[in-house]
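Re: weekly structure request thread

Next one in the queue (619 aa):
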Amino acid sequence: MGSIDPDCRRVAVVTGATSGIGHWLAELLHQRGYRVALCGRRREEGEANATALDKSRETAIFIQCDVASWSSQCELFKTVWAKWSRLDVFIANAGGVERDSWYNFAGRDAQIDELPSEPSTICLEVDLRAAMYNTRLATHFMRHNPGGKGGKIIVTGSMIGVYPCATFPEYCAAKAGVHQWVKTVGPVLLQKENIAINCVMPGGIETPAFPGFSTAFLPEQLTLRSNLMAGFERYIEDTTDKTGETLEAAHDELFEWGHPGYKSGAFGQRTEKVYDPWFEMVHGERSELPAALSGPPTGERIIAVTGATGSQGGGVVNVMRKTPGWKVRAITRNPESDAAKKLVAEGVEVVQASFDDEESLRKAFNGVNAIYAVTNWWEHLFQGKSRTECGEMEERQGMTIARAAASIPTLEHYIWSTTPSAARMIKPSGRLLTPHMDYKAKVDARIKKELPRLAAMTTYLYLGYYPQNMAFFPLLKPILHPGNGQYIQTVPSKPDAKILLSGDMSVNPGIWARQVLRTGLKAYGMYANVALEKWTFQQMMDEWSVITGKNGVYMQTTSEAWTKLWGDAGAELAAQFQFGEMCDPWEETEDHISPEGLGIDRDEVVGFRGTIEGLKHMF
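Done, posted below.
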């Protein structure tokens, strides 16, 4: 291997490098092949540290600097540039706690005209203002790096900038400001300058800067030096453009803090969004951030509906396209299908996307304010997949849709069509499996765990039994007995077993979607049953007979017999009906929002009777 041109070796600057964390970082970077400038106030210690790294001063130097001073920082950067003519990594590590007590307990007995003395704010100046100075100056010099602009800035934060500690109020405030600074400027610096800025937040750690941690903390409550260095290394070596991140360095683990989520949903989301006319007014040019608003928001909002040519998605399209203030974007795999062409003829925007292609979904969701997401387990079954394979495919597609939705900056509400899970609700876990329900519920759990920002604006809709099944689904359609003229519905469930009825699928899903969107914040994170009725199978058959004028008979069979007759489809539905006999899967809990809570007009909802009356000609 040939020798490396010394002028090409990367350059790093570390502030607060005369002892403790800064000294450790200087050693780490030098071991990684960086030329390192150590910065601090104490010349003797700083010179000793630099000499220990390289007596020749070719690859390690000390520069005395007061980081709270703009002019002193300018001299620091100019000296580094004059020495090596590049800057790749800047670590803003200098810090310290307050020098005065902000509580002023000593002034309790002071007279009213004996005002407190002006406190020192050196902690704020060194911990926060200096980091802001560092960023501004590092950006200037990194723009001139040979081979193109760019670099990395890493700031030392603190976990008591997240969890306040009453002992150090000024320090807590300063570090909280540092964390917010990093998160705020990170996206813009990466977009415009190719500079990533991130923050590593240790807990208590023994350093000369503030000794005594080993007395005040148990060993397992202290951040290990090795773990802290691993946190910095994560960003030093990063090649994936991480920026604006805060990383906790706990005892021996690292935790990404991510975004805090939106407790007020769309309201909070809009609060943080960049409005580019203001950005330009303050900073002289537009942010160029993909999520920025380029101008005033329009009055019309867009809801994207997946499975828009299907039964459930079609019901959402039917209602939402008639809802003032909303425009529907129908998402379909095949925009050339007759159903898709019918939507286009009715004035609905139709966009192609695949549940197996996240990028196509991102493009289809671009600019939308709401998404109604539904997947189809049964489609995979009828294509010859096993019940478990269908579930795995549905979970994979459900998460692909969710990840695409989570990337949409304009999104304000995500509605996920799901079901209760026998695998989770029937104990012991796994005793009864209903894959067409279980894997949807897995998506619920994964959204909450893996996509917390999306979960904060998600409503989960529970769909039950479709009355249309009696007209279109062979397994549940009453069959004419040729010998006696009676219609027989054969089902593997007790005649008195109750089941949730979702009513007319061409209307009701849309009613619930519309009301969820109108309810907004109160519907976030909640489940809702798309139904007003729970009937027994016998009730349904009796009512079917009255409406159709045909003599209908409900006949219970066994799961085994039904499976022999209908194969995997029969086994799956038999398991669902068994689930319904063992408990009430759709029982409302504290996690549910009621129809009244959503403002559902019961007179608008089409129940079992209305659905069968509309399909009477089919029987």
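DSSP finds 23 helices and 20 strands in the chain. The radius of gyration is 32 Å.
Next request, please.
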